[in-house]
Amino acid sequence: MEIKSGHVVAMHYKLTNDQGEVLDSSEGRDPLKFLQGAGNIIPGLDKAMIGKKVGDAFTVTVEPEEAYGVRHEQMIQKVPRSAFQGVDELQVGMTFHAETEQGPVPVTITDVTGDVVTVDGNHALAGVRLTFDVTIEEVREATAEEKEHNHAH
User: Fold this and answer.
1) Residue 74: which residues within 8 A CB-CB, separation 6 or more?
2) Is the CB of residue 15 less than 8 Å from the CB of residue 42?
């Protein structure tokens, strides 16, 4: 069975950046299951799945625009430490949800200098070209419930 929209796919993968660093992998875990075409995985990888079958192994490189987007410098802001009331110790790498006009946005602290905290609202992989080494483990029709819920069960 070839992968098409509305199928449940199970895959093993290794994700690397341009420097060859492993960013994520399913090694030692169950395969990642997702509903093809439902936005469960990044668009570039979703497109690369079309037509693949169980047993297929392939490598695909996905540009930032088809992954987690490009980096936007306006998503990096300096805010007063007082914006983090109730948090005793702020550290680089901590994540919070900032309230914006578009709703809550996850931000990561990238610097703390005195009373000024720098936060970055870009996804950690924004601006990064991603390479996936993939092996397709399972392909099947999605159930009505999976289609209704928009994800694999």
Assistant:
1) none
2) no
Question: Please, what is the Cα angle at 9 between 8 and 12, to 5 degrees?
Answer: 155
Across the beta sheet with 103-113, the strand order is 76-80, 116-120, 103-113, 95-100
**102 pLDDT tier (thresholds 50, 70, 90):** confident
Phi, psi angle pair for 78, to nearest 5°: -100, 130
φ, ψ for residue 92, nearest 5 deg: -60, 135
| Coarse DSSP helix, strand, coil percentages of the chain, rounded to the nearest 5 percent | 15, 40, 45
Q: Where are the domains of the chain?
A: 7-68+125-149, 73-120
pLDDT tens-digit series, residues 38-84? 999 999 999 999 999 999 999 999 999 999 999 999 999 999 999 99
Query: Does this model's pTM top 0.90?
Result: no
**Looking at the domain that runs over 73-120, which CATH code has it been given?**
2.40.10.330
Q: Looking at this protein, which amino acid is placed at residue 124?
A: A
Query: Is 7-68+125-149 assigned to CATH 3.10.50.40?
Result: yes
